[in-house]
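idk why but the lab printer keeps eating my pages so im just putting this in chat instead. protein + S-adenosylmethionine:
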Amino acid sequence: MIIKQILENDTFLREDILRLLNCRDEDRTLLFNKSAGIKEKIIGKKVWFRGLIEFSNVCSKDCLYCGIRKGNKNLKRFNLSDEEILSAAKFAYDNRYGSIALQSGEIESTAVADRIENLIFKIKELSRGELGITLSVGEHSHEVYQKWFDAGAHRYLLRIEATNESLYRKIHPGNKKHDFKRRLECLKSLQDIGYQTGTGVMIGLPFQTMDDLASDLLFMKEFNIDMCGMGPYIEHADTPLIHYAADLLPLNERFDLTLKMIAIIRIMMKDINIVASTALQAIDPLGREKAIKIGANIIMPNITPGRYRDSYKLYDNKPCTDESAEDCRSCLEARVSLADSEIVYGEWGDSQHYDKRRKSIYIPKSDPNE
Ligand code: SAM
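predcted complex ->
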């Protein structure tokens, strides 16, 4: 009964979120039915692609959970050539994916900033301006973000990872390169510049509490994000956090909590874009379609050349590392239709929330001289 009452509202207090995160059985079904209904009403049965190009696993950071952290010496490092990146982008364009997402480890340097700017120009050129571009390349200066925006990138995904600063410090080394406040400032820069701004967290981290997860959702609402990318934390044997593996929630519970987080944010922020993350599929082969059913509307088919995929292992058992881009597309098509949804080809699928937010910021003011 309590859950039913909570779901009659769509602004949630912390205690409401905690109840929803802990709900089971029929209450859980009520939650998922509500979020699925909102998705269908606001977004429809549509799913948009972002062709994911994981172009380099070279990283200057040492995040304690991440398989491509600088300190992992058991990893073959790669950096795709510009030609390889552009040919993956061309594949996305030829197959009418609508958008691509460029993702990599984090290197802050003029050479990297210039390279990415040049790639954005070239991707726009090869697609006659038609391919949308999402970046997910970590923390950079306001000026660098501005330069990429001016070149034509229009969405940026920068997960805050954990909004409780003390939890953030437990899952990152304690130095200037891993500064919570800097990550937050980066998100603010992205929003100020005018990107569709996305963030998210990992779910089921060591030391994380339900209260932390409730704070994460409240943060996203308060920050007024346009896009959300959240996924379960999955351990990686070559990372320091592996020592806490015995304390983690079982994988099926991390999976279920992720679905609940997606459902709750869909109710709290009806018109944002929500990614069905690949990490869900690492736990359950039908993980992404389950996320689509209850609220997600974006899928990121991997179009990185197959031979590099094994080296972009953020966590153990990452799926689809042995597939080609073509395999990935046909597999996703079958999966999305299983979820009773339809892939929209050749469209950007921008966040409706962004459009409304921008319009409310830029309501044309009447000219005082008129
Ligand atoms: N370096 C960029 C950044 O931090 O925004 C993008 C690349 S980073 C590898 C992409 C995302 O992978 C991170 O934001 C993090 O949430 C996720 N990730 C890393 N290790 C993970 C793990 N063990 N389990 C689940 N997700 C993980």
